[in-house]
Amino acid sequence: MAPIPTPQPEPQDSPEGYVGLDAPDAERRARARGWSTVRSLPPGAIVTMEYRAGRLNFEVKDGRVARAWKG
Question: Spans of biased composition, class Pro residues (predicted)?
Fold first, then answer.
């Protein structure tokens, strides 16, 4: 049986620091800081409750990050 892989540690980065930034700039910054997946969503989007280590979610309104959270 193959061993269970150990997930990479998440970047030591606060999602709140992205709020108010231009969405494309925020995505570039997040990737540069080590987030493996960056997901931009419209306000009120329906998303699953699964948690993915290394993923940063942005709620984007009028081209700016209105909310950001891990997973």
Answer: 1-12
**Confidence check: pLDDT of 6 > 90:** no
Could you tell me the two tokens for 11? 């970047």
Is residue 41 within 8 Å of 47, Cβ to Cβ?
A: yes
pLDDT tens, residue by residue, 8-30? 788 999 999 999 999 999 999 99
Task: State residue 39 phi and psi, 5-degree precision.
Answer: -120, 125
Strand ranges for the chain from DSSP E: 37-41, 55-61, 64-70
- Please state the pTM of the whole predicted model: 0.85
Answer whether 13's CB lies under 8 Å from 33's CB: yes
Buried b (16+ CB within 10 A) or exposed e, 1-25: eeeeeeeeeeeebebeebeebebee
